[in-house]
Amino acid sequence: MSLLRHLPSRRSRLAVAVVVPLAAVSALTAVVTPASAAAECSVAHAAPARWQGDSNSTPCTEGVSTTTTTAPRQAAGSLPSSFRWSSSGILISPKPDATHPNVAVKDPSVVYHNGRYHVFASTYTDGYNLMYTSFADWSQASSATHHYLDRTAIGGGYKAAPQVFYFAPQRLWYLIYQTGSNASYSTNRDIANPQGWSAPKNFYADGMPKIIQDNIGDGYWVDFWNICDSAKCYLFSSDDNGHLYRSETSLSQFPNGFTNTVIAMQDADRYRLFEAANLYKIRGSGQYLLIHEAIGSDGRRWFRSWTAPAITGPWTALADTEDNPFARANNVTFPDGAWTRDISHGEVVRTNVDQTMEISPCNLRYLYQGLDPGADGEYNRLPWRLGLLTQTNSTC
Protein backbone atom coordinates (compact mmCIF):
# COMPACT_ATOMS: atom_id res chain seq x y z
CA MET A 1 0.00 0.00 0.00
CA SER A 2 1.66 3.16 -1.16
CA LEU A 3 1.64 6.65 0.28
CA LEU A 4 2.31 8.70 -2.83
CA ARG A 5 2.35 12.17 -1.34
CA HIS A 6 5.67 13.02 -2.98
CA LEU A 7 5.74 10.56 -5.85
CA PRO A 8 4.43 11.45 -9.33
CA SER A 9 0.73 11.33 -10.13
CA ARG A 10 -0.70 8.33 -12.01
CA ARG A 11 -0.38 10.07 -15.38
CA SER A 12 3.13 11.42 -14.76
CA ARG A 13 4.21 8.01 -13.40
CA LEU A 14 3.52 6.62 -16.87
CA ALA A 15 6.13 8.89 -18.39
CA VAL A 16 8.69 7.85 -15.78
CA ALA A 17 7.93 4.15 -16.05
CA VAL A 18 8.76 3.91 -19.73
CA VAL A 19 12.18 5.51 -19.35
CA VAL A 20 13.70 2.29 -18.00
CA PRO A 21 13.39 -0.65 -20.44
CA LEU A 22 11.02 -3.39 -19.39
CA ALA A 23 13.86 -5.85 -19.75
CA ALA A 24 15.66 -4.35 -16.77
CA VAL A 25 16.90 -7.18 -14.60
CA SER A 26 16.30 -7.31 -10.86
CA ALA A 27 19.50 -7.52 -8.84
CA LEU A 28 18.91 -10.19 -6.24
CA THR A 29 20.47 -10.29 -2.79
CA ALA A 30 19.82 -13.67 -1.21
CA VAL A 31 21.59 -16.36 0.78
CA VAL A 32 21.08 -19.97 -0.26
CA THR A 33 19.89 -22.18 2.57
CA PRO A 34 18.08 -25.51 2.52
CA ALA A 35 14.30 -25.38 2.34
CA SER A 36 12.84 -25.98 5.79
CA ALA A 37 9.97 -28.23 6.66
CA ALA A 38 6.72 -26.70 7.82
CA ALA A 39 6.32 -26.20 11.54
CA GLU A 40 4.98 -29.30 13.26
CA CYS A 41 1.90 -27.59 14.63
CA SER A 42 -0.41 -26.60 11.77
CA VAL A 43 -4.07 -25.68 12.00
CA ALA A 44 -7.18 -24.76 10.07
CA HIS A 45 -6.54 -25.86 6.52
CA ALA A 46 -8.39 -23.38 4.36
CA ALA A 47 -10.68 -25.39 2.11
CA PRO A 48 -12.97 -23.43 -0.19
CA ALA A 49 -16.62 -23.69 0.81
CA ARG A 50 -17.46 -26.00 -2.09
CA TRP A 51 -14.92 -28.61 -0.97
CA GLN A 52 -16.01 -31.43 1.33
CA GLY A 53 -13.44 -31.55 4.12
CA ASP A 54 -13.34 -33.50 7.35
CA SER A 55 -14.08 -31.59 10.54
CA ASN A 56 -11.47 -32.35 13.16
CA SER A 57 -10.01 -31.02 16.36
CA THR A 58 -6.30 -30.46 16.71
CA PRO A 59 -4.05 -29.76 19.70
CA CYS A 60 -2.82 -26.61 17.94
CA THR A 61 -6.22 -24.95 18.26
CA GLU A 62 -6.32 -24.65 22.04
CA GLY A 63 -7.80 -21.24 22.68
CA VAL A 64 -9.58 -21.25 19.31
CA SER A 65 -13.20 -21.77 20.19
CA THR A 66 -14.31 -24.10 17.40
CA THR A 67 -13.06 -27.02 15.32
CA THR A 68 -11.08 -26.61 12.13
CA THR A 69 -11.83 -27.79 8.62
CA THR A 70 -9.21 -29.78 6.75
CA ALA A 71 -9.16 -29.99 2.98
CA PRO A 72 -8.90 -33.42 1.34
CA ARG A 73 -5.52 -34.06 -0.26
CA GLN A 74 -5.27 -33.08 -3.92
CA ALA A 75 -3.12 -34.71 -6.53
CA ALA A 76 0.39 -33.27 -6.62
CA GLY A 77 0.78 -30.40 -9.02
CA SER A 78 3.00 -27.46 -9.85
CA LEU A 79 2.65 -23.82 -10.76
CA PRO A 80 2.57 -23.04 -14.48
CA SER A 81 5.10 -20.73 -16.13
CA SER A 82 2.23 -18.53 -17.38
CA PHE A 83 -1.00 -17.71 -15.59
CA ARG A 84 -4.57 -17.12 -16.71
CA TRP A 85 -7.32 -15.79 -14.46
CA SER A 86 -11.02 -15.00 -14.40
CA SER A 87 -12.17 -12.14 -12.19
CA SER A 88 -15.34 -11.70 -10.22
CA GLY A 89 -17.10 -8.39 -10.20
CA ILE A 90 -16.74 -6.12 -7.18
CA LEU A 91 -17.27 -8.24 -4.05
CA ILE A 92 -16.44 -5.85 -1.20
CA SER A 93 -17.07 -2.10 -1.26
CA PRO A 94 -16.83 0.56 1.47
CA LYS A 95 -19.69 0.67 3.98
CA PRO A 96 -19.64 4.20 5.35
CA ASP A 97 -21.24 5.06 8.68
CA ALA A 98 -21.49 8.26 10.69
CA THR A 99 -17.89 8.08 11.88
CA HIS A 100 -16.37 6.21 8.93
CA PRO A 101 -17.32 7.94 5.65
CA ASN A 102 -14.96 5.62 3.79
CA VAL A 103 -14.08 6.13 0.15
CA ALA A 104 -11.98 2.97 -0.31
CA VAL A 105 -11.42 -0.57 0.92
CA LYS A 106 -8.07 -2.10 -0.04
CA ASP A 107 -4.98 -4.17 0.90
CA PRO A 108 -6.93 -7.33 1.87
CA SER A 109 -5.66 -10.31 3.84
CA VAL A 110 -7.83 -13.43 3.93
CA VAL A 111 -8.00 -16.82 5.65
CA TYR A 112 -10.63 -19.55 5.52
CA HIS A 113 -11.28 -20.92 9.01
CA ASN A 114 -14.15 -22.88 10.56
CA GLY A 115 -16.35 -22.62 7.49
CA ARG A 116 -15.95 -18.88 6.99
CA TYR A 117 -13.74 -16.47 5.09
CA HIS A 118 -12.19 -13.86 7.38
CA VAL A 119 -11.08 -10.72 5.54
CA PHE A 120 -9.07 -7.83 6.98
CA ALA A 121 -8.46 -4.71 4.91
CA SER A 122 -7.47 -1.05 4.96
CA THR A 123 -10.14 1.63 4.81
CA TYR A 124 -9.58 5.27 3.92
CA THR A 125 -11.46 8.45 4.76
CA ASP A 126 -9.05 11.24 5.70
CA GLY A 127 -6.59 8.66 6.98
CA TYR A 128 -6.09 4.92 7.08
CA ASN A 129 -7.45 2.37 9.51
CA LEU A 130 -8.50 -1.29 9.47
CA MET A 131 -11.72 -3.23 9.01
CA TYR A 132 -12.80 -6.87 9.41
CA THR A 133 -15.59 -8.79 7.70
CA SER A 134 -16.57 -12.46 7.59
CA PHE A 135 -18.87 -14.64 5.47
CA ALA A 136 -19.43 -18.29 4.58
CA ASP A 137 -19.45 -17.86 0.79
CA TRP A 138 -18.17 -15.22 -1.61
CA SER A 139 -21.76 -14.58 -2.71
CA GLN A 140 -22.34 -13.15 0.80
CA ALA A 141 -19.30 -10.86 0.80
CA SER A 142 -21.11 -7.72 -0.35
CA SER A 143 -23.74 -7.95 2.39
CA ALA A 144 -21.45 -8.94 5.28
CA THR A 145 -21.04 -6.52 8.19
CA HIS A 146 -17.90 -4.38 8.36
CA HIS A 147 -16.31 -4.10 11.81
CA TYR A 148 -14.06 -1.06 12.20
CA LEU A 149 -11.03 -1.97 14.29
CA ASP A 150 -10.43 1.56 15.57
CA ARG A 151 -13.32 0.70 17.90
CA THR A 152 -11.19 -2.04 19.47
CA ALA A 153 -7.97 -1.91 21.49
CA ILE A 154 -6.14 -1.43 18.17
CA GLY A 155 -7.41 2.14 18.36
CA GLY A 156 -7.42 5.07 15.99
CA GLY A 157 -4.61 6.71 14.09
CA TYR A 158 -2.75 5.46 11.06
CA LYS A 159 -3.03 1.66 10.58
CA ALA A 160 -2.96 -0.02 7.16
CA ALA A 161 -2.05 -3.02 4.99
CA PRO A 162 -2.93 -5.92 7.32
CA GLN A 163 -1.72 -9.52 7.23
CA VAL A 164 -3.47 -12.15 9.35
CA PHE A 165 -2.26 -15.63 10.35
CA TYR A 166 -2.39 -18.11 13.23
CA PHE A 167 0.91 -18.48 15.09
CA ALA A 168 0.63 -22.11 16.16
CA PRO A 169 3.44 -22.20 18.77
CA GLN A 170 1.58 -19.58 20.84
CA ARG A 171 -1.96 -20.54 19.81
CA LEU A 172 -2.64 -16.92 18.89
CA TRP A 173 -3.91 -15.09 15.84
CA TYR A 174 -1.62 -12.27 14.71
CA LEU A 175 -2.68 -9.19 12.78
CA ILE A 176 0.32 -7.32 11.34
CA TYR A 177 0.00 -3.82 9.90
CA GLN A 178 1.97 -0.69 9.11
CA THR A 179 1.80 2.35 11.36
CA GLY A 180 3.99 4.75 9.38
CA SER A 181 7.14 4.66 11.50
CA ASN A 182 7.13 0.95 12.36
CA ALA A 183 5.61 -2.47 11.76
CA SER A 184 3.06 -3.29 14.44
CA TYR A 185 0.96 -6.25 15.52
CA SER A 186 -2.05 -7.19 17.63
CA THR A 187 -3.08 -10.65 18.85
CA ASN A 188 -6.38 -12.44 19.42
CA ARG A 189 -7.48 -15.85 20.71
CA ASP A 190 -10.51 -15.90 18.40
CA ILE A 191 -10.30 -14.50 14.88
CA ALA A 192 -14.11 -14.27 14.73
CA ASN A 193 -14.19 -11.80 17.66
CA PRO A 194 -13.25 -8.35 16.36
CA GLN A 195 -13.25 -6.98 19.92
CA GLY A 196 -10.59 -9.50 20.94
CA TRP A 197 -7.60 -7.77 19.32
CA SER A 198 -4.91 -6.45 21.66
CA ALA A 199 -3.39 -2.98 21.63
CA PRO A 200 -0.62 -2.45 19.05
CA LYS A 201 2.99 -3.39 19.76
CA ASN A 202 5.96 -2.66 17.52
CA PHE A 203 8.24 -5.23 15.92
CA TYR A 204 11.30 -2.97 15.71
CA ALA A 205 12.40 -1.60 19.10
CA ASP A 206 14.74 0.91 17.44
CA GLY A 207 12.44 1.88 14.58
CA MET A 208 13.43 1.72 10.93
CA PRO A 209 16.61 -0.36 10.39
CA LYS A 210 19.59 1.60 9.09
CA ILE A 211 19.80 -0.31 5.79
CA ILE A 212 16.26 0.84 5.01
CA GLN A 213 17.05 4.42 6.04
CA ASP A 214 20.02 4.34 3.68
CA ASN A 215 18.05 3.07 0.66
CA ILE A 216 14.46 4.29 0.98
CA GLY A 217 15.11 7.64 -0.72
CA ASP A 218 11.78 9.44 -1.18
CA GLY A 219 9.81 6.20 -0.81
CA TYR A 220 7.81 4.85 2.12
CA TRP A 221 8.27 1.87 4.45
CA VAL A 222 5.19 -0.23 3.69
CA ASP A 223 3.49 -3.62 3.38
CA PHE A 224 4.91 -5.90 6.06
CA TRP A 225 4.67 -9.64 5.52
CA ASN A 226 5.66 -12.43 7.93
CA ILE A 227 6.42 -16.05 7.06
CA CYS A 228 8.11 -18.76 9.16
CA ASP A 229 9.84 -22.08 8.59
CA SER A 230 10.63 -24.63 11.32
CA ALA A 231 13.45 -22.52 12.78
CA LYS A 232 12.96 -18.84 11.95
CA CYS A 233 10.40 -16.17 11.13
CA TYR A 234 11.08 -13.59 8.42
CA LEU A 235 9.50 -10.15 8.18
CA PHE A 236 9.49 -8.63 4.69
CA SER A 237 8.75 -5.02 3.74
CA SER A 238 8.92 -2.73 0.70
CA ASP A 239 9.90 0.91 0.23
CA ASP A 240 8.20 2.12 -3.00
CA ASN A 241 11.76 2.66 -4.21
CA GLY A 242 12.77 -0.65 -5.78
CA HIS A 243 13.77 -2.60 -2.65
CA LEU A 244 12.34 -5.60 -0.83
CA TYR A 245 13.77 -6.00 2.69
CA ARG A 246 13.93 -9.05 4.96
CA SER A 247 14.50 -9.23 8.73
CA GLU A 248 14.64 -12.42 10.81
CA THR A 249 14.17 -13.82 14.28
CA SER A 250 14.01 -17.31 15.75
CA LEU A 251 10.68 -19.10 15.90
CA SER A 252 10.99 -19.23 19.69
CA GLN A 253 11.59 -15.45 19.97
CA PHE A 254 8.76 -14.33 17.66
CA PRO A 255 7.41 -11.62 17.68
CA ASN A 256 10.55 -10.22 19.32
CA GLY A 257 14.14 -10.10 18.17
CA PHE A 258 13.82 -9.13 14.50
CA THR A 259 17.28 -8.17 13.25
CA ASN A 260 19.78 -8.83 10.44
CA THR A 261 17.77 -6.73 7.98
CA VAL A 262 19.00 -7.16 4.40
CA ILE A 263 17.92 -6.24 0.89
CA ALA A 264 16.28 -9.44 -0.34
CA MET A 265 15.63 -8.12 -3.86
CA GLN A 266 16.09 -4.84 -5.70
CA ASP A 267 15.42 -3.26 -9.08
CA ALA A 268 16.94 -0.12 -10.58
CA ASP A 269 13.43 0.82 -11.79
CA ARG A 270 11.46 1.50 -8.61
CA TYR A 271 8.16 0.91 -10.42
CA ARG A 272 9.06 -2.67 -11.33
CA LEU A 273 9.53 -3.58 -7.64
CA PHE A 274 7.15 -1.22 -5.93
CA GLU A 275 5.20 -2.71 -3.00
CA ALA A 276 2.71 -5.33 -1.73
CA ALA A 277 4.91 -8.44 -1.52
CA ASN A 278 3.36 -11.83 -0.68
CA LEU A 279 5.52 -14.87 0.06
CA TYR A 280 4.15 -18.42 0.34
CA LYS A 281 5.29 -21.99 0.81
CA ILE A 282 4.06 -24.09 -2.13
CA ARG A 283 2.60 -27.30 -0.75
CA GLY A 284 4.41 -30.51 -1.66
CA SER A 285 7.09 -28.83 -3.76
CA GLY A 286 9.93 -27.74 -1.49
CA GLN A 287 9.56 -24.31 -3.13
CA TYR A 288 8.43 -20.83 -2.15
CA LEU A 289 6.50 -18.31 -4.25
CA LEU A 290 7.15 -14.57 -4.09
CA ILE A 291 4.81 -12.12 -5.78
CA HIS A 292 5.41 -8.37 -5.80
CA GLU A 293 3.40 -5.47 -7.18
CA ALA A 294 4.74 -3.29 -9.98
CA ILE A 295 3.49 -0.24 -11.87
CA GLY A 296 3.40 -0.97 -15.58
CA SER A 297 4.32 1.03 -18.67
CA ASP A 298 0.61 1.96 -18.88
CA GLY A 299 0.59 3.31 -15.31
CA ARG A 300 -1.53 0.37 -14.08
CA ARG A 301 -0.78 -2.00 -11.18
CA TRP A 302 0.20 -5.63 -11.81
CA PHE A 303 2.12 -8.51 -10.19
CA ARG A 304 5.44 -10.20 -10.92
CA SER A 305 6.44 -13.61 -9.48
CA TRP A 306 9.49 -15.72 -8.60
CA THR A 307 10.18 -19.08 -6.95
CA ALA A 308 12.99 -20.23 -4.64
CA PRO A 309 14.00 -23.33 -2.64
CA ALA A 310 14.08 -21.31 0.60
CA ILE A 311 12.57 -18.17 2.09
CA THR A 312 15.97 -16.55 1.74
CA GLY A 313 16.22 -17.40 -1.99
CA PRO A 314 17.82 -17.46 -4.47
CA TRP A 315 14.83 -16.25 -6.52
CA THR A 316 14.21 -17.41 -10.08
CA ALA A 317 11.78 -15.52 -12.31
CA LEU A 318 8.49 -17.39 -12.88
CA ALA A 319 6.09 -14.94 -14.54
CA ASP A 320 7.58 -11.47 -14.16
CA THR A 321 7.11 -9.43 -17.35
CA GLU A 322 4.24 -7.32 -18.64
CA ASP A 323 3.75 -9.82 -21.48
CA ASN A 324 3.91 -12.78 -19.09
CA PRO A 325 2.75 -11.51 -15.69
CA PHE A 326 1.60 -13.30 -12.58
CA ALA A 327 -1.53 -11.14 -12.71
CA ARG A 328 -2.24 -8.15 -14.94
CA ALA A 329 -5.24 -6.94 -16.90
CA ASN A 330 -3.89 -8.69 -20.02
CA ASN A 331 -4.10 -12.20 -18.46
CA VAL A 332 -7.44 -11.70 -16.68
CA THR A 333 -10.91 -12.11 -18.19
CA PHE A 334 -13.94 -10.33 -16.71
CA PRO A 335 -17.13 -12.31 -17.47
CA ASP A 336 -19.28 -9.58 -15.88
CA GLY A 337 -17.41 -6.67 -17.46
CA ALA A 338 -13.95 -5.19 -16.88
CA TRP A 339 -14.46 -3.06 -13.78
CA THR A 340 -10.70 -2.51 -13.27
CA ARG A 341 -7.46 -2.41 -15.24
CA ASP A 342 -5.39 -2.45 -12.04
CA ILE A 343 -4.63 -5.76 -10.33
CA SER A 344 -3.25 -4.50 -7.06
CA HIS A 345 -2.45 -5.37 -3.42
CA GLY A 346 -4.10 -8.58 -2.23
CA GLU A 347 -3.53 -12.14 -1.07
CA VAL A 348 -3.77 -15.76 -2.22
CA VAL A 349 -6.44 -17.82 -0.43
CA ARG A 350 -4.18 -20.20 1.51
CA THR A 351 -4.49 -23.93 2.22
CA ASN A 352 -3.79 -23.34 5.89
CA VAL A 353 -3.84 -20.38 8.22
CA ASP A 354 -0.62 -20.77 10.20
CA GLN A 355 2.73 -19.02 10.09
CA THR A 356 4.09 -21.23 7.28
CA MET A 357 1.83 -19.40 4.79
CA GLU A 358 1.23 -22.54 2.73
CA ILE A 359 -0.71 -22.51 -0.54
CA SER A 360 -1.71 -25.24 -2.97
CA PRO A 361 -0.23 -24.97 -6.48
CA CYS A 362 -3.65 -25.98 -7.81
CA ASN A 363 -6.54 -23.67 -8.69
CA LEU A 364 -5.18 -20.49 -7.12
CA ARG A 365 -7.53 -17.76 -5.98
CA TYR A 366 -6.35 -14.22 -5.30
CA LEU A 367 -8.33 -11.55 -3.45
CA TYR A 368 -7.19 -8.18 -4.82
CA GLN A 369 -7.95 -4.48 -4.98
CA GLY A 370 -9.14 -2.95 -8.22
CA LEU A 371 -10.19 0.47 -9.40
CA ASP A 372 -12.64 2.04 -11.85
CA PRO A 373 -10.46 2.68 -14.94
CA GLY A 374 -11.82 6.21 -15.15
CA ALA A 375 -10.90 7.14 -11.58
CA ASP A 376 -8.12 9.66 -11.08
CA GLY A 377 -6.85 12.06 -8.48
CA GLU A 378 -4.84 11.85 -5.27
CA TYR A 379 -3.82 8.22 -4.69
CA ASN A 380 -5.08 7.85 -1.14
CA ARG A 381 -8.60 8.96 -2.12
CA LEU A 382 -9.01 6.67 -5.13
CA PRO A 383 -12.14 4.44 -4.87
CA TRP A 384 -10.51 1.00 -4.49
CA ARG A 385 -12.76 -2.07 -4.25
CA LEU A 386 -12.08 -5.80 -3.75
CA GLY A 387 -12.56 -8.63 -6.24
CA LEU A 388 -11.45 -12.26 -6.55
CA LEU A 389 -9.25 -13.81 -9.25
CA THR A 390 -9.69 -17.53 -9.97
CA GLN A 391 -6.96 -19.32 -11.90
CA THR A 392 -8.23 -20.87 -15.14
CA ASN A 393 -5.11 -22.73 -16.31
CA SER A 394 -4.20 -24.84 -13.29
CA THR A 395 -1.94 -27.81 -14.07
CA CYS A 396 -3.70 -30.01 -11.48
UniProtKB/TrEMBL annotation:
Subcellular locations according to the entry: Secreted
Gene Ontology CC: extracellular region
Signal peptide: 1-37
Main location: secreted
Comp. bias intervals (Polar residues): 53-72
Alphabetical UniProt keywords: Glycosidase, Hydrolase, Secreted, Signal
One annotated GO molecular function: alpha-L-arabinofuranosidase activity
Protein name stated in the entry: non-reducing end alpha-L-arabinofuranosidase
UniProt lineage: Bacteria, Bacillati, Actinomycetota, Actinomycetes, Pseudonocardiales
